[in-house]
Every structure is written in structure tokens, then in C-alpha cells.
Amino acid sequence: MNLETTVELSNGVKIPQLGLGVYKVDRGEEVYQTVQSALNVGYRHIDTASFYGNEEGVGKAIKDSGISREELFVTTKVWNDEQGYEETLQAFERSLKRLQMDYVDLYLIHWPVPNQFKQTWKALEKLYYEGKVRAIGVSNFLQHHLDDLLLEAEIVPMINQVEFHPQLYLKELLHYCQQRGIQLEAWSPLARATYLDHPLLLQLGGKYGKSPAQIILRWDLQHGIVTIPKSTHKERQVENVNIYDFSLTKLEMNEINNLHCDRRVGSHPDQINS
């Protein structure tokens, strides 16, 4: 395993298992430098969204990198106030223009907006059938949202990107998605660094000569999760990918699983109204 390790989605498209998230990375120079740095380190998977306001910087950094588009995996998302059938199709074209791309590798519904996400999904299916996206999926969908969507969907989402970390170990959702061929992807895998001082993570870090962050990211990989830690600093970007030279034991994996306390750093999906 290394930074080029991929996971195959249900339609055969391969997504790098570890990527770079750019939520709350400022538009313009900061996101440009962040993406350029990550690409130089060896990242080939970049995750953005229209809501982040930094698609232009991401697109420019990719274009200026000289790396062929086919080598990269780029994700963006449709925001809550852009949802609906026609609205989503228009939002996608705006994202493409900002990214300066002809297609994206993965397009996601950002949140399950009630009474909107089914029509939004119809638009994503259209984009997929037309070849404008290589894969489509959802973000922040719980089991009941997926149940509801699958009643009418022609295509089963290829990805469900959710908040997922040891204190929010969504075991049932992970199993649900695995049973249906939906790849789970973790946003905020390090929980915004809110408990990297946990004794268990420090202990395991000491054992393996790794940081608590590296222990968590390794835990993600061993659960088969695609993970997209954010870092604007090259040293951290390098640290985040230096997780392929050790393995956690089954006992250690279970110990980390047991940190679960249903604690979120982001919004609860059922509290999204618009």
C-alpha cells in the first residue's frame, strides 16, 4: 500500500484511498499553494465543493501543476441552495467552469435536503449517463436517507461521504453501505484535531513511532474507508501519507472502535432543512 493505493467503486472507477480535503481553505493563494504542495507530495485525489468557495483556486493549481488530468481524481459537490433538478444541472456547469475542467471524477449531493435530494439525484444520474462525471454519490446521508433515495434511484450511489472518526464510529452505516456496494468516505477524519491527545492514540503512536493523527488515518484505511484529511502545511501533508509502513492489530482496531461516543464536530444530517 502507498499513496497510489486505490479502492474500486461499484462501477469500476478507482478512487485513491487517501486524498486532500480543502474545506475552510481560503480561496485564492492559500488553496492554490495547498493543492500545489499536495500534488508535489504525491496526492492525486482532491476534494472540494461549491460551498467552499475555492473551486477556482483548486482548478488553477491543478492546471498549473502540469500533471495530466487523467492521473487525478477530483470531487466537488452541489450545495443545499443549489438542489433540485434544473438547479443542480446549472450548479454543476458553474462548478466545471470554476474548476476549468471538462468533467469531474465524483459529484456528490452535499447534504440530504428534505424534499429536494431525490430530484437532485435525478440530475446527478443524468450527468453520469452523459459522461460528465465518472461517479456520483452522496454526502452526509444516514441509513434512512439512503433507504428513501433507493426507492426511486436508477443508480445506487457509489460513495457516501460522512463525518467519520473514532469518536463517531458509524459501524451500522458502514455495514449498511458495504452491503449495498456504496463506498464510505470520511470527511473530517481527524475530528478537527479535537482529541489527538487521547491516551490511547498517544500510546499507540508511541508503540509505532507515529502521531495520533497517523494512527487514526491508519484505522480508516484498515476499515476500508476512503479518507480526505485537510492540511495546508506540507509537513502535515507528508505526515498524513506516511501511514503505509505499519498495521494496527485486530485488538488495537477494536480499542479505537470503542472510543465511539456519538460525538460530532459537524452538523447532524437530520438537522439540515435547506
SSE map:
Layout: E1 6-8, E2 14-16, E3 20-21, H1 29-41, E4 45-47, H2 55-65, E5 73-78, H3 85-99, E6 104-109, H4 117-129, E7 133-139, H5 143-150, E8 159-163, H6 171-179, E9 183-187, H7 199-208, H8 212-222, E10 226-227, H9 234-241, H10 250-257
Parallel strand pairs: 3-4, 4-5, 5-6, 6-7, 7-8, 8-9, 9-10
Antiparallel strand pairs: 1-2
Active site: 52 (proton donor)
Keywords: NADP, Oxidoreductase
Domain NADP-dependent oxidoreductase: 18-258
Protein architecture, described:
With about 270 residues, the protein is α/β, with parallel strands linked by helices. The protein has a domain of about 190 residues: NADP-dependent oxidoreductase domain (TIM Barrel), CATH 3.20.20.100. It is built from ten helices and ten strands. The strands form two sheets. An eight-stranded parallel sheet has the order 3-4-5-6-7-8-9-10. It has a two-stranded antiparallel ribbon with strand order 1-2.
The proportion of residues forming helix, as a percent range, comes to 25-40%
Counting H and I runs of at least 4 residues, what is the number of helices?
10
Strand order of the largest sheet: 3-4-5-6-7-8-9-10
Distance N terminus to C terminus? 40 Å
CATH architecture term of the domain at 14-190 and 224-232: Alpha-Beta Barrel
Please write the CATH class name of the domain at 14-190 and 224-232. Alpha Beta
Q: Can you tell me the overall shape?
A: globular
Identify low-pLDDT runs. none
CATH H-tier superfamily of the domain at 14-190 and 224-232: NADP-dependent oxidoreductase domain
What class would the helix/strand composition place it in? alpha/beta
Q: How would you state the average pLDDT, rounded? A: 96
CATH fold field value of the domain at 14-190 and 224-232: TIM Barrel
Number of strands: 10
Order of helices and strands: EEEHEHEHEHEHEHEHHEHH
- Percent of residues in β-strands: 15-25%
Give the biggest sheet: 8 strands, parallel
Keywords: NADP, Oxidoreductase
Binding site for substrate: 110
Domain NADP-dependent oxidoreductase: 18-258
Family: Belongs to the aldo/keto reductase family.
